[in-house]
Design goal:
Layout (H helix, E strand, L loop, with lengths): L10 E8 L3 H18 L2 E2 L7 E10 L3 H13 L7 E5 L1 E5 L4 E5 L5 H16 L13 E5 L7 H4 L1 H4 L2 E5 L1 E8 L6 E9 L1
Antiparallel strand pairs: 1-3, 1-9, 2-7, 4-8, 5-6, 6-7, 9-10
Helix pairs in contact: 2-3
Length: 190
């Protein structure tokens, strides 16, 4: 179900994502801050840390109910719904984008299945999505100045961060000078 605040806008920049619980977000934010002390960059705000399942981009607000129907179908297809966990156990760096991220060596199959179902439904509805493989990750830093030292890069390998999830969301991105703010428009059990 869409939130009441989604009604007034005529356009929305939206995506589907998972959100970490408070303890996971706190630890990831602390790791990001420690990495930034070593290599520079802009630390992602704790309340914006997420794992993108499908980025839809800018859509007319009238399309939001259709996006919700796609999400509902994708989530229902994944039953039964046991509790799910992602173990973040590595940090990586994309030099061309200057992004430092956290990910899992072995992400749970449910993430790949959900991302694939969302992408399929979105493509069938006429949305253009990149044809690259799904690479589940959490952006920790943007505009990184240099690769952090090895001990910092191994922090999750030495002490993995569990991320328990039981739902996914449709979110609106609202750009600002300090970085994007996100509004949850709808959520579905997983």
């Amino acid at each position: 179900m869409l939130s009441a605040s989604s009604a007034p806008a005529t356009r929305a920049r939206v995506f589907f994502a998972l959100w970490p619980d408070a303890a996971c977000a706190t630890r990831l934010h602390a790791i990001a801050a420690a990495c930034a002390a070593d290599c520079g960059g802009r630390v992602m705000q704790k309340d914006t840390l997420h794992l993108t399942l499908a980025f839809v981009d800018d859509v007319d607000a009238g399309e939001l109910p259709a996006l919700c129907a796609i999400a509902e179908a994708a989530g229902v297809a994944l039953q039964p719904r046991p509790p799910h966990a992602l173990l973040l156990d590595r940090i990586g760096y994309w030099p061309q984008k200057r992004i430092l991220w956290a990910a899992s060596e072995q992400p749970p199959a449910v993430l790949e299945a959900l991302a694939k179902r969302l992408a399929g439904g979105l493509r069938e509805a006429g949305h253009r999505l990149p044809l690259r493989p799904f690479a589940p990750h959490v952006t920790l830093l943007r505009k990184v100045g240099a690769v952090p030292p090895a001990p910092r890069m191994d922090i999750l390998h030495d002490a993995p961060q569990p991320w328990h999830f039981d739902r996914f969301c449709l979110l609106r991105s609202r750009p600002s000078a300090s970085g994007a703010a996100y509004e949850t428009l709808a959520a579905w059990p997983l």
